[in-house]
Amino acid sequence: MPALLRALGLCLLLAAPANAQRAPARVQQRAADRQPPTAEPVVVDRNGVMRWTANGKEVALFGVNYAAPFAYDYQSIKAMGLDPKRAIDADVSHLARLGVDAYRIHVWDKEVTDSLGNLLENEHLDLFDYLLSRLSARGITVILTPIAWWGPGYPAPDHPSPGFANRYSKPQMLVDSVARRASVRYVAQFVQHVNPYTQKSYGEDPNIIAMEVFNEPWHDLAPPVETTRYINEMVASMRGAGYRRPIFYNISEHYSPAHGAAVCAANIQGVTAQWYPTGLVRGEALPGNPLPNVDRYPLPWRQTPGCASKAHMVYEFDGADVTVPVMYPAMARAFRGAGFQWATQFAYDPLAVAYSNTEYQTHFLNLVYSPAKAISFLIAGEVFRRTPRGFDAGTYPASERWGDFRVSYADRLSEMVTDSVFAYTGSTTTVPPHPETLVRVAGVGSSRVVTYTGTGAYFLDRLARGVWRLELYPDADPVEDPHSRGSLKRSVTRIYRREHMIGIELPDLGARYTMLPLNDESPHLPQRSGSMLSVRPGAYLLRAAGAETQLNASSIIAGRRLGEFFAPKASDGPTVVRHSPPPSVTAGGRFNARFDVIQATQPDSVLAFVRYVGWQGYRRGQKLEYGCGSTGCGWSGSIAADTGRTGALQYVVSVHDGGKAVTYPGALDGAPNTWDFTGTQFWTTRVDPRGSLIVLFDADRDRSRVVNPGYVPGATTRSEWIAGSTPERGAWLMGVDAFGPTATAMAFRTMLRDGTRERLNAESNGSLDGLSLRVRLRAQGTAEIPLALAVILTDGSAWGTTVRVSTAWQDVDVPLQGLARVPLVLLPRPFPSFLPWDLTVGSPATAPDARMLDGVQWGFSRAAGMANNASLRLEIESVHLIDSRGTR
Fold this sequence. Notes:
- The chain is of the alpha+beta class.
- It has 13 helices and 54 strands.
- A hairpin with a 3-residue loop joins β38 and β39.
């Protein structure tokens, strides 16, 4: 678990063969890779490249951390009355389905050791042994980290545990002589422990290819020479216990050049690093385009003596607090560019508790509950395995496309398109080049191959000519922000086993294929309607007309029964209607409104009713249409604002089922067009006169649209909400209270709402001519402040100038024409702290487009001679877009 998280939070079946009884080619290759002529499966060569000893090929493995045997996951699964081993079976099945071939975890030593560092044979260790055996059976390779130090409670309070590490702080673990003796004892017993399920010790199991000594160690209490000494002591203990495989040690945690040199001077074969490019624990989903944050991963220790011979491993990574399914493929590409050979996300949510995303609220990855992100993760694994070390895709946004892959923030989409594989995270119009040669399809939504109206993930695997297997997961309907405060008492995503229609266009299936259920649980017999068939979640065998096969639910391919299928029961709870109203619309204009109706069955119809403040009734109900896109499925319609009428436009929707109507918001029985409707709750948007100012930021309205810098070593920032220039107005106070000894600059962002961007797109031709930002603000204190102000576009580029702000409330107009391209500050601050502070995005020749406005960047720099603790603070009420030519 990342140290920064604690600091902020607590302080497919793969390519299928023609012969269905043989394992897929990739699984066969993995098996060959793991049958070395020597006793050890991998070796690190003199150039720091980890290779399979069986054939000399480079290792390139991609996967997850997963913690069901330990800590909060274990406690939650047990508290729910579930069998942890059955929970592990489901999750390992899903990991294999996603193509995962790497697993890493920091073992909670506090749960599996006594006060002297002896390994305890308890339920935690038994479940861990069981997990390792199931991973091995699915061809998922393992690297283990014996020492975590963390307590076993997070996010709940720690509960009592027996381990020796309870007596020490993390820095003390590395310098206290008693703690070191206990650690030495523990790691020796750890590598010698015999797994009863595999009959092999951790040091002998060919599926456990390496170990990392300590999760995120803090060498703060001793000089660098002691770091080397500590590492060598731990390595000597493991080697003395008979361990012969590569040993890794963390180089990125609390990195400094001296620390890097000390680590690389030790008797290890590899170094480990993490990547949290959007910080951690924001407390809500991050707005804006996150892709510039993952443009590349520089290694500051690359030229450090001794480091060139060390292999590189990413033990943890994630695009924390990001819901857009684009981060994983881009991160995998950057990892390969940096030379990493192993990358494991932190942390995959167990199916049993993923409904609440309580384990680590800043992360959210599960095949069933976050299907689009899960498919993006599958694509990322392919990126990692297929992309050579040192690859450079150029600077963002050029790096949105490379080889067979694409990520797009604008389309909210990740894709993989090859002759044999087609994978996508949402509805797409991309045409696979050769549908006749496809052997795998994985997706969410609809494509040129699959037409589907559900929201769950699905997988198509070719088993033989004219014979395919469909694996279809339930609908996953978001209810709450998954990155807000977690609790097992709430659901962030509901699961529904609805019936949907599906159409599949694959040349070797033809138009009249049959579909038979394979899974044992509640098999559903599809019914055909034209080219579409009715389906429910489960596994199905698809067979072209005339195709013969002996396959059935009991047939085993790649160690997996064709009938194997794990999915949760349908969720409970009342109907929820989710909608985000646009802040404003122009009189005579229209806005697109989408309503997500979350309930067990699809409603018969959904109607929108509109009125202006002061009206006694509503306009005639407007029927909404159900449809799916790259961002999911919902009921949508275009709502018009009257020409010549301004003020507050209020609207509601009525959900009709079986002759009964319920109106939202408020869940009031009846529809607004009945005489006795008494609803008083509405969604509201403001109707502005043509040519009026467009509000880009309002301190009273847009608190969720502020992006703070997050953790910056040594610096102290401020972001809070205070009274504004008048009693009825609020303001956002932000700035720097202390830069710290190394920080020289700081920045914040305010991001536009989706509805504001829609209005810009409708009312602008793209030209900046005559447009200005009008910013109402003042400096706090006694001195004028130079503010580096920039507009951010949806492509991640930033265009700015410097504005001097006095201590009196003022409206500052900043013309957009003539702004210079400036670096985009990467926010929240990427972690580890050696990662780049900013990125100059895009081609200098590209001119900005007003329709692409996405936010405002607020920057400060420490002036020469300024003391570390000198503060720079601004109070901001609003940002408007104005037109000096009088049209706005």
